[in-house]
Amino acid sequence: MTRRTGLLLLAAAALILPAPAPRADGARPAGDPSYSGQPLADFAARRAALRKAAGDGMVLLIGSPAGEEGKYRPDSNLYYLTGVSAPSAALVIVPPDDPLNANAALYLPQTGGSATRFGEAYLSPGPDAVAATGIDPVHRLWDMWDEIEPSIRKAPRIYIQGPVGEAARYTASARTIDRIRAINPGAEVLDVGRLVNAMRLKKSPAELDALRAAGAATIEGMEGAARSIRPDAVELAVEGEILAGFRRKGAAREGFPCIVGSGPNATILHHTSSDRTMAAGELVVVDIGAEVRCFSGDVTRTFPVNGKFTPRQRQVYDLVLAVQKAVSEAVVPGKTTLGDLNTLARRLFRESPLRAKGDDGTVRTMDAFFAHSISHWLGMEVHDVGSMGATLEPGMVLTIEPGLYVPGEGIGIRIEDDYVVTERGAEKLTPGLPSDAASIEKLMRSKRTR
Ligand SMILES: [Mn+2]
Predict the structure, then answer these.
(1) What does the pLDDT read at residue 403?
(2) Superfamily assignment of 14-198 in CATH?
């Protein structure tokens, strides 16, 4: 190929290939766990909204350092406001007329050099970081306290990553509070969650994309569980198949420890996988969530160990599924609350003709065996932040997860999917995974296809 045709091909490729999506951590390729997939304008808009909400107060968020254990996960609020996944990043937002002479500043550790021999090179202070984050300036973490001291001295209120007050004792935020007090003893130190939690309730289109990707990886894991559950399988081995599915779909982490609960463990709500061997006739509750670009899925399916529900298991299963469907159809944007959904689920369980015996041997209606709430917010945290009393609005993401637990019969059944509230109602974010009993049995018969 001549140089000329090569250049022409390059020019043609530039026309055909889509422009790279904006990303917060500019030096790193897409597909990397640090890639946020969110437009820089979204982060800028959140910082502007927070700055407005803080009034004459100041925001100081100091990210956690990289630990020895496990993969680094940036702090959610810092990530929400910057998209930066480097450890020990810090964000400062100041009010108008502040001595810092900028709306916001980002502080990063100086990396590179020999540090890259031991770990990954993260975004470093300098012009590249300004371009990658849209925050100006980006300075060295080393200089932060000197630079922000005049701002702290002037601020009547300072919002930090909680906890604050008594609860801050022995936590990382205690050090930040001490340092602030040494500079300005009169400043009121508050949890930034007071301002940010409500903002995080409504997800942006890019955040919904991340949640859908997390849902897809979670489904891949669930299919691995379906193929590996059989008599004599061990819960932890099933977990291994789940994690393989997560990783294949790009999830480097789990949003929470995998719950694989067989037999009596199915009736324990948060039983993390153990070395228990499962047996024919038992049920297995699998409650899992892959994390993609800092957003978590949260999906539960219940499987019969030998691949077929007994008539009684099926009866209870069908009731749980019917309640999930009815509750998801009851979502009316601008009107419904999580409390309304809870009330509806309890009523439907109570009105069912099914009965079971409680621990004391008395026959009870099924609402007696619904041992938890129907729903929670979902986002960067699996139990995401935001008031549980909020009215459902478009963009909010919730789980719907009815469950019935009858220890006397060895029955524990939970079905959970993730939903986004739209203008019309609730739309499943995890539509690719069937939940009716026949489909579950069929999924268990499916051969390994990879
Ligand atoms: Mn859940």
Answers:
(1) 98
(2) Creatinase/prolidase N-terminal domain (3.40.350.10)
Q: pLDDT at residue 18 above 70?
A: no
Determine the distance separating the centroid of ligand 1 and the alpha carbon of 380, expressed in angstroms.
13
Cα–ligand 1 centroid distance for 36 (angstroms) = 23
In 3D, which of 113, 110, 114 has the Cα closest to residue 88?
110
Residue bearing tokens 């009870």: 364
Q: With left for phi above 0 and alpha for psi between -120 and 50, is residue 250 left, alpha or beta?
A: left
In CATH, which superfamily holds the domain spanning 205-445? Creatinase/methionine aminopeptidase superfamily (3.90.230.10)
Q: How far is the CA of 298 from the centre of ligand 1 (A)?
A: 5
Q: Per residue in 281-310, pLDDT tens?
A: 999 999 999 999 999 999 999 999 999 999
Provide the residue ranges of all domains of the chain, joining segments of one domain with +. 14-198, 205-445
Find tokens 């001490």 and name the residue.
178
Q: Which residues contact 93 (CB under 8 A, 6 or more apart)?
A: 47, 50, 51, 54, 58, 59, 81, 103, 104
Please give the distance, rounded to the nearest whole angstrom, from the Cα atom of residue 217 to the centre of ligand 1. 16
Q: How far is the CA of 310 from the centre of ligand 1 (A)?
A: 26
| DSSP assignment letter at 57 | -
